[in-house]
Amino acid sequence: MPGLSGRMSTVVKAKISKLLDRAEDPAETLEYSYQKQIELLQNVKKGIADVVTSKKRLQLQEEKLQQQMLKLDTQARQALAAGNEELARVALERKNVAQTELQSLDGQIAQLEQQQEQMTASEQKLRTKIEQFRSKKEVIKAQYSAAEAQVRISEAATGVGEEMADVGLAMQRALDKTENMKARADAVQELEAAGTFEDLTALGSGEDDIDRQLRQLSSSSAVDEELAKMKAELGTGSAPAGELGAGGAGGGAGASGAAGGAAQQQAGASEGQAP
How far apart are CA 164 and CA 77, in angstroms? Predict the structure, then answer.
C-alpha cells in the first residue's frame, strides 16, 4: 500500500534523523568540513599543476617546431642554391606543415594559459574562503564549547542534568530505604517492649501468648483457692461456700468445748488454793 509504505519511510527517516542529530557533534562537523575544503584546495592546486605541465610540454614542442622550421628553411635555401628546385620545394612543404602545427600549438598554449589564470584565481578565492571558514570555525567551536560547559554547570547546579538526575534518584532511593528501615526498627522495638514477640531462640513448649495468659489465669485461681483454705483452717477468714455449713458447725462446737474445759481447769485451781 503506497500510503502505509510512505508513512513507514517517513517514520524511519525521522528516527534516523533524530539519532543523527544526537550523535552529531558541531566541532567534529566543522573539522570535517574544513578538511574537505582543504582537500578541494589541494585538488585545485593539483589541477593547476597539471595545466602548467601540459602548457610546458606544448611549449617544448613549439620550440622544437620552430627549430625544425628554421632548419627546413636553411635546407630549402641550400637546395635552391645547388640548383635542386625539387628538393627545395619538399623542404618548404615540410616547413609549411611545421608552421601549421606551430600555429595550432600556439592556440592550445593560449587556452592553457587562460585556463591556468582562471584556476589560479579560483584557487586564491577558495584559499581566502577557507581561511575565513577556519577562523569562523574556531570561533564557533569556542562558542559551542563555552555554551556546552555553561549548560553542564547549570544542569549540575540545578540538578536537571541526566547524570545529576541519576544521582538525585539514587539519593532519594537511599533516603527512602533508610526511612523504611528506621520505621521498621522502631516498630520492632515497640512490639518487643509490649511483649508481642517471643524469643524464638529459647527452648520451650512452643506456647503462644494466649496459652500463657490462660496458664497464668489457672495458676492464679489455684493460688486463690489454696489461700482461702488456709484462712479457713486458721480461722482468719471465711471458708469457701461449699464448706461453710459443716465447717462452721464443727468449728462452733470445738470452740464451746475448749471454753468449757478452760473454765473447769480454772475452778479446780481455785479450790486447791483455798484453806
Answer: 100
Whether the predicted pLDDT of 225 surpasses 70: yes
Q: Which residue has the cell 566543522?
A: 30
The answer to whether residue 53 sits within a structural domain is: yes
28 belongs to a structural domain: yes
Distance between CA atoms of residues 122 and 131, nearest Å: 14
pLDDT tens, residue by residue, 166-195: 767 777 888 888 988 888 888 888 877 776
Domain total for the chain?
Answer: 1
User: How far is C-alpha 219 from the chain's CA centre?
Assistant: 68
Alpha-carbon distance of 217 to 210, in angstroms, equals: 11
Flag whether 71 is in a domain.
Answer: yes
| Dihedral pair phi/psi, residue 26, rounded to 5° | -55, -40
pTM to 2 decimal places: 0.48
Domain that holds residue 130: 21-161
Its sign, for the CA torsion 104, 109, 115, 117, is negative
- CA angle (166, 172, 176) in 5-degree steps: 145
Residues 107, 104: Cα–Cα separation, whole Å: 5
User: Which residues lie closer than 8 Å to 77 by C-beta, 6 or more apart?
Assistant: 88
Collapse the DSSP code of 195 into the 3-class scheme (helix H, G, I; strand E, B; otherwise coil) and give the result: coil
The predicted-structure confidence for 63-92, as pLDDT tens digits, reads as follows 999 999 999 999 999 998 988 989 999 999
Query: What's the burial of 51, exposed, middle or buried (CB within 10 Å: 0-12/13-18/19+)?
Result: buried
Which is higher by pLDDT, 137 or 253? 137
Q: Is residue 264 part of a domain?
A: no
How many angstroms separate the CA atoms of 173 and 165, rounded? 12
